[in-house]
Amino acid sequence: MNQLIISAATEGEAKGNPLIPNVWEMGVVLVGFAVLMYIVVKFVVPMFEKTFAERAEAIEGGIAKAEAAQAEASAALEEYKQQLTDARAEANRIREEARAEGAQILADLKAKAAAESARITEQAHAAIESERQAAVVSLRSEVGTLATTLAGRIVGEALTDDERAARVVDRFLADLETQSAGAAK
Length: 185
Hints:
Number of helices: 3
Radius of gyration: 68 Å
Order of helices and strands: HHH
Membrane topology: Single-pass membrane protein
Strand content: under 5%
InterPro entries: ATP_synth_B-like_membr_sf, ATP_synth_b/b'su_bac/chlpt, ATP_synth_F0_bsu_bac, ATP_synthase_B_chain
Coiled coil: 63-101
Number of domains: 1
Family: Belongs to the ATPase B chain family.
Mean pLDDT: 84
Shape: rod-shaped
Distance between the termini: 185 Å
Low-confidence stretches: none
Main location: membrane
């Protein structure tokens, strides 16, 4: 048994302290870690960086595109509002022009109607005056004939002399006009 204990102790000394790592194992692990670190740094990290940069660029580009689209939409909205305002102003202007033109047409039609009415009235007055003159001439000749015949019967002789008959008719008509003017006052 003593031997056993000694061989176990020798074996324990040969194996060493379990808390102290084996140098060869540490070297292999360090070399593996270094190779793995080299692979990660050389190949994996650049791919992550590249992917990160692409995503960041895509996000920034998307934000820029969104801002540009927002600015374009705002500009289009402002242009639409301006066009709508211009269209309303144009419609108001056209409406006012139409009202003014309608008023002008109405005034022209009223003036034409007044002129036509005045022309018709003037023609009627002229026709009445013409007919009155014709009636006066007709009445003069008839009254003259009647007056001459009446005067011939009163006097007892025929008044065949035209000059004398005309004077008698004129005197008779003058007396009638004087009597009508006195009665009208």
